[in-house]
Amino acid sequence: xxxLVHGTDxxxxxxxxxxxxxxxxxxxxxxxxxxxxxxxxSVGLFGRNIVSPEQLTALTAxxxxxxxxxxxxxxxxxxxxxxxxxxxxxxxxxxxxxxxVDDVELTRAVARELGRRLAACGVDLxxxxxxxxxxxxxxxxxxxxxxGPDPDLVARHTVAYVDGLQGVGVAACTKHFxxxxxxxxxxxxxxxxxxxxxATLHARELVPFRAAVAAGTKAVMSAxxxxxxxDPHRPATLSPQILTGLLRQELGFEGLIVTDGMEMQAVAxxxxxxxxxxxxxxxxxxxxxxxxxxCDEDTVLQLRDALVTAVRTGELPEERLADAAAxxxxxxxxxxxxxxxxxxxxxxxxxxxxTAPGTDIGLVAAxxxxxxxxxxxxxxxxxxxxxxASFTPVANFAVGDETPWGIAAELERLLxxxxxxxxxxxxxxxLLAAAGERRIVAVVRDVHRHAWMTEALDALVAAxxxxxxxxxxxxxxxxxxxxHIATHGAARVCGRAAAEAVAGTGA
Length: 507
What we know:
Elements: H1 10-17, E1 19-20, H2 30-38, E2 42-45, H3 53-66, E3 71-74, H4 95-101, H5 104-120, E4 125-126, H6 151-166, E5 171-177, E6 193-194, H7 198-203, H8 206-215, E7 219-222, E8 226-227, H9 240-250, E9 256-258, H10 265-283, E10 288-289, H11 297-312, H12 318-340, H13 342-345, H14 361-369, E11 371-374, E12 387-391, H15 408-414, E13 419-423, H16 429-435, E14 440-444, H17 451-463, E15 468-471, E16 483-486, H18 492-503
Parallel strand pairs: 1-10, 2-3, 3-4, 4-5, 5-7, 6-8, 7-9, 12-13, 12-14, 14-15, 15-16
Antiparallel strand pairs: 11-16
Helix pairs in contact: 1-11, 1-12, 4-14, 5-6, 6-8, 10-11, 14-18, 15-18
């Protein structure tokens, strides 16, 4: 392609500095290493880049061989959204489980251990935690990624999570500002709109973000959502009123403002990624996240050149781009200093009880998060292999469909011979035939959001009253079955805790 600028002048370096691109592969491609040498200061990692801790450590070392201050970012929320364990499922329950326990020390310990594992692999910026107040139970993209529907609860756990991560040198990126909880549209697909008044936004959406800023979160991620009371024309990521006026001036945030993925349709479908990136930096963002979908060199060059052109034509003030680049470098310096003190930061007196290497703090948390409701008849724990019926909704983009969920694998470990089937419609005839005389464990996810799932579950429980129901999404529907288990998330560790309850072997 024809590029607009050549060399490594200050303007070009600044334009590269504000990008956080992704790439394909488990080693860094030559083009990425070359751009790091030219000024690219951040790299975003996704599940496609990771196969093991050892491989990830080698990858981050390869990146830092080019520049030792490069920021390595990841979308590792734990729970349903995991990149470290994308093929296995997370060893940590997500926010909804932690919020349901409501023990801030537990949340801090989980975040600290997750941060320790990231730091050990050379990752130093985590696009987490989600500080969204999940006030809309129909929300298709936040749900169990939120600590819950209560602003104060979300605030205290957001602070604990930020403290846990940053205590081991991993920068937290609190998201999705100014709050993605009251939407019924996924911003990966279209532009969500929140039409509530300013008083509601301040009393609900902004409470956790104020707390996170006060707690010293190093970064904040913007949301691609339209909040008409704040800016009726542009989504938050592109809004000077929201990023500069609200976040910088009113909330007093001085750290790094990162955009959500610029290829998401909420921005890309209307503005395109190039103009969207220019508008985002002009509005007050400091780092452009791109790479969940678009992850090649051409994307990086297009965005770099769009920013340079915008400065040269006067659309983007050069000092705004320079300020954004300076904030990226400041965060890189903070993480670099923590890496230099790495052994001291995560060993000896600095390690809190319950967060040492090899700890099962995630399993402890998942067990505590279980809510078990017994039916009218006494429940007898299963001692023979059951049939697991998984009612499978379409996964949202943030979670993806690579990561396994459910309890079949964990039940197979406890009750060898366990069989499973996946169902996606309201008929249960095939399910009942496949189960035969086996006891049935029905696994659902957000049953309250899916009419077909509700219909199927009601028919199943009517036909087989001894059915055990395991809800691994939001626990909004009335309990059903001989035993109802709400895990408050679909992480692998939540499945293990539920399997223990089904078999009566829990710790």
